[in-house]
Write a structure and sequence with these properties.
The complex is a heterodimer. Chain A is of the alpha+beta class. Chain A is built from 14 helices and 18 strands. In chain A, the strands form 5 sheets. Chain A has a 5-stranded antiparallel beta sheet. A 4-stranded antiparallel beta sheet of chain A has the order 7-8-2-17. A 4-stranded antiparallel beta sheet of chain A has the order 3-4-6-5. By secondary structure, chain B is of the alpha+beta class. Chain B has 10 helices and 6 strands; from the N terminus they run H-E-H-E-H-E-E-H-E-H-H-E-H-H-H-H. The chains are: A alpha+beta, B alpha+beta. At the A-B interface, strand 2, helix 7, strand 17, helix 11 and helix 12 of A face helix 4, strand 5, helix 5, helix 7 and helix 8 of B. Strand 17 of chain A pairs antiparallel with strand 5 of chain B, so a sheet runs across the interface.
């Protein structure tokens, strides 16, 4: 063990040098880095959101709600199909992700099955012998739709975030129906949350004036109608509207939307694509003099009266907008509607100055801790303690270098992990040196004591590293966010310390032996 | 030549085994109190596990806690807790979990921020909905159980079964009493604390393994020495190492505790306690247990092939009666 082949020495030195090289960029600011020649690595440790400030949002796509919505849109087709085939039915509605109904005439169950099967191949039709029917999406179709809904949501979220000018957002799918959004630099994500939380489904629907919404609620709702609340309570305006379910034109046909002013009031102007323009033109031509409702997420923004056919394919939405809400609505309309509502499950955001404070605190505690340990090792082991200190320095370099190279994310608990592994790293040295002392006491020669110290301590060192590594790996696997950062630094630190505390220390001792040919060990 | 300034020259001759019954009694008491407290008053779970909201706010000028509390109470969003946090203009606001599922939490934050008005800088916002909280608990418990199991499987694999039993009891002891510490002082128990507990489990086993290594080695070396003496010898021989190692890690953790800021406080306290209790349990629990469930000496003596056993024959008995080393 006291002999090192030259290639081994070279290898150990090379690893240390690489560690130094790759950890070096972390000492510079990005501006200073730009000055350095391109041959030198530029990668810095990737700072977590808790250190550089930013927001972490975990969203869930409400796939079930999207499906219910789809079923609600199909229900009209079911009604028409049964009417066309002149099949009597009762109790047609949507329950538990299925359209349910009862066929009155049990002789016509087969006819009903045939008529309903044509509506959508993704829907399974199941009618029992008692006439109780059920239509739902097959499991394959459900899964497909879930995928689609999440993919589409990610796309829409990306567009919305791009429109707000958020820098380098990360949008990731997580699990079956979750989306992780990370917004570096956004310390207070209230506005972003408001934008992401809106489905932004815009529709134009005719207002039914045959009765008041209250009457409709109390008495018989006219077929194909619904009562929708107004978005904002404005004096002199109704708080709810009775509208036709049938959508004249949907927001999906919009090609542009901008916030502008009309009569000094913020409004949103929009433009349809050709198909949308034609449908809007036809619908307005047929209903001149009647009001139509502009509906956003099932709430009526306003219900202007159609004065004449609107054939130009563009229009203006006015409501009681503020400048902010008008520009938000324009943004949402431009980016498109979410296929399903989104709930925010978890939010963690840190302002940039707290992040800077955390970096400062973390760095100070690491530096103070390292100084204490370095002094401690020197006091208790003299020259050999200094060897351990040099190894500790390279250990830190290797950790930072590995973190930079892997592009791993450093969090505040991650800094704690660095501090902790630095404290534990010298444990290997302590074990070795104590063993050497014991061997010396038992009367061994200097060289054989050194030899025995390293060999015998190794098994113990390995044991202690493996147990810590096990904890680290499990934490990485099961932990989330900042805790993952802790697991990363802990695991990397355990591995690098195995290298530095054993090999780097040993190399120094061997070199010292060769160079100075000492007669005894200063322990 | 640079010599150490402080040297522990002799191997101490402490009769650890004399105290082991006190150790057992003390630990049983500590463990029982911990479990009792956990069952009776539970832990002060942070929002990671409980769900809810945490806001770290910086006000302009010293914070008027009473006024802020009044504003939040008017919202009727449950029992908000406000707490000074470091500097006088920093406040930690906690809102309990709201009805209305995940969406309800977000609404409450919005309302609270509106009610407190402008001029407040929200340095940190954490909102955890009930569904995520439940998942985090599940993952946390799973991680702890698996980590303990994995570490113990490793020890059982490396040593004979009595050592495995001893290590299991010692590690469980450390984990349970750490939880007890958090229960009695009402320290916030969150994800970082859990990370600390897992690290404690991984770390506290170190001392135990080092000592067991020694016990096993001594069993091969001194085949006729009474077991009681054997354990004392192993403990004394490793004592300086134990103290030095614990000191370096403790120095690091202390500096984290003092300089690491509020966020790491819980983590550092848990770690510090874990280091102390882990060392104690290695000396007074893990080692004496072996006295009661003795490993088969003959079986161990018969397998001298492992790296640790190799030197048994060549080392003299001097190791037991050390003279002070020449300077």
């Amino acid at each position: 063990m006291l002999y090192f082949a030259n290639w081994k020495i070279l290898l150990i030195c090379a690893v240390c040098a690489l560690g130094l090289l790759f950890s070096l960029p972390n000492l510079f600011t990005p501006a200073q880095l730009a000055w350095l020649p391109s041959q030198i690595p530029h990668k810095q440790v990737n700072l977590g959101l808790d250190l550089r400030g930013g927001s972490y949002l975990l969203l869930e796509v409400d796939v079930a709600a999207a499906q219910t919505e789809q079923l609600n849109s199909v229900i009209e087709n079911v009604r028409n199909a049964l009417l066309d085939a002149k099949i009597g039915y009762t109790g047609l509605n949507v329950q538990n992700n299925a359209i349910v109904f009862t066929i009155r005439d049990q002789d016509r169950i087969d006819d009903a099955k045939n008529a309903l099967a044509k509506i959508d191949p993704a829907l399974t039709v199941d009618i029992g012998s008692d006439g109780a029917g059920k239509m739902q999406f097959s499991s394959v179709a459900t899964e497909q739709r879930r995928q689609q809904a999440v993919d589409q949501s990610i796309e829409i979220i990306r567009r919305r975030l791009d429109e707000t000018g958020t820098k380098e957002p990360t949008i990731q799918r997580q699990g079956a129906d979750r989306i992780l959004v990370e917004l570096p630099g956004v310390g207070d994500p209230e506005h972003v949350k408001q934008l992401l939380g809106k489905t932004a489904k815009l529709t134009f629907q005719l207002v039914d004036q045959s009765m008041s919404p209250d009457e409709a609620k109390r008495g018989r709702m006219p077929l194909g109608d619904e009562v929708l609340p107004a978005q904002t309570d404005r004096p002199g305006q109704p708080t709810q509207y009775l509208v036709k379910r049938r959508v004249m034109v949907g927001g999906d046909t919009l090609v542009d939307a901008q916030a502008t002013f009309q009569n000094n009031e913020p409004v949103v102007s929009f433009r349809f694509d050709t198909a949308g323009a034609r449908r809007f033109g036809d619908a307005t031509r047929d209903n001149v003099g009647k009001p139509f409702a502009i509906v956003l997420d099932n709430k009526v923004i306003s219900a202007p009266v159609i004065k004449e056919a609107i054939l130009g394919g563009s229009g203006i939405i006015s409501g009681s907008f503020t400048v902010q809400s008008a520009s938000d609505l324009a943004l949402l309309l431009r980016a498109g509607a979410l296929p399903a509502p989104i709930t925010i499950l978890e939010e963690r955001s840190v302002g940039p100055d707290l992040g800077a404070d955390s970096i400062h605190d973390g760095a100070v505690s690491c530096i103070v801790g390292v100084i204490l340990v370095v002094v401690f090792m020197f006091l208790f082991y003299g020259l050999f303690g200094l060897f351990a200190d040099v190894a500790l320095f390279f250990n830190l370099c290797l950790m930072l270098g590995t973190l930079s190279l892997l592009g791993a994310t450093l969090t505040l608990p991650g800094i704690a992990g660095i501090a902790l592994t630095l404290g534990m790293a010298v444990d290997a040295n302590v074990l070795i040196y104590e063993r050497i002392r014991e061997e010396m006491r038992s009367g061994r020669t200097m060289l054989s004591s050194l030899e025995a110290g390293f060999t015998r301590a190794f098994g113990t060192i390995l044991d202690s590293h493996v147990t810590t590594l096990v904890a680290g790996i499990l934490l990485y696997w099961l932990g989330s966010g900042p805790v993952k950062g802790f697991a990363v630094t802990l695991s990397i630190g355990v591995l690098t310390s195995l290298f530095s505390a054993i090999l780097v220390t040993r190399l120094q001792i061997v070199s010292w032996l060769r160079r100075w040919k000492p007669r005894e060990i200063p322990l | 030549m640079i010599r150490p300034l402080i040297v522990i020259r002799r191997v101490p001759q402490i009769d650890f085994m004399r105290w082991h019954l006190f150790g057992f009694a003390f630990s049983i008491l500590l463990g029982a109190v911990s479990i009792g407290l956990f069952a009776a008053i539970g832990l002060n779970y942070g929002i990671d596990f409980k769900g809810g909201t945490l806001l770290e706010a910086k006000t302009q000028g010293p914070a008027d806690l009473a006024a802020m509390r009044a504003k939040l109470d008017d919202l009727h969003i449950g029992d908000a807790s406000l707490q000074g946090f470091g500097a006088p203009d920093e406040v930690l606001i906690r809102l309990p979990e709201q009805p209305g599922g995940d969406a309800g939490q977000m609404k409450a934050v919005e309302l609270a921020k509106q009610a407190l008005g402008p001029g407040i800088d929200y340095r940190r916002t954490e909102v955890v909905g009930p569904s995520v909280g439940a998942e985090l608990i599940r993952a946390g418990v799973l991680a702890t159980v698996l980590a303990l199991a994995a570490i113990l499987v490793y020890v059982w694999f490396r040593f004979e079964w009595p050592f495995g039993v001893g290590a299991t009891i010692a590690t469980l002891h450390d984990t349970i009493t750490t939880i007890g510490l958090f229960a009695i002082f009402r320290l916030e128990f969150n994800l970082t604390t859990l990370a600390a507990i897992l690290t404690i489990a991984g770390y506290s086993i170190n001392d135990t393994v080092v000592i067991y290594d020694r016990v096993r080695e001594a069993m091969r070396k001194y085949r006729t020495m009474p077991f009681r003496e054997l354990i004392n010898l192993a403990l004394n021989e490793t004592l300086s190492r134990t103290i030095l190692t614990v000191s370096t890690v403790a120095l690091m953790v202390l500096s984290l505790l003092v300089f690491g800021g509020e966020v790491l406080k819980g983590f550092s306290i848990a770690m510090l306690w874990g280091i102390v209790i882990g060392t104690y349990s290695s000396l007074f629990i893990a080692a004496p247990i072996i006295y009661y469930i003795q490993p088969n000496r003959r079986a161990i003596a018969r397998e001298p092939t492992t790296a640790e056993g190799e030197g048994g024959r060549s080392t003299s008995r001097q190791e037991r009666r050390p003279r002070s080393a020449k300077s």
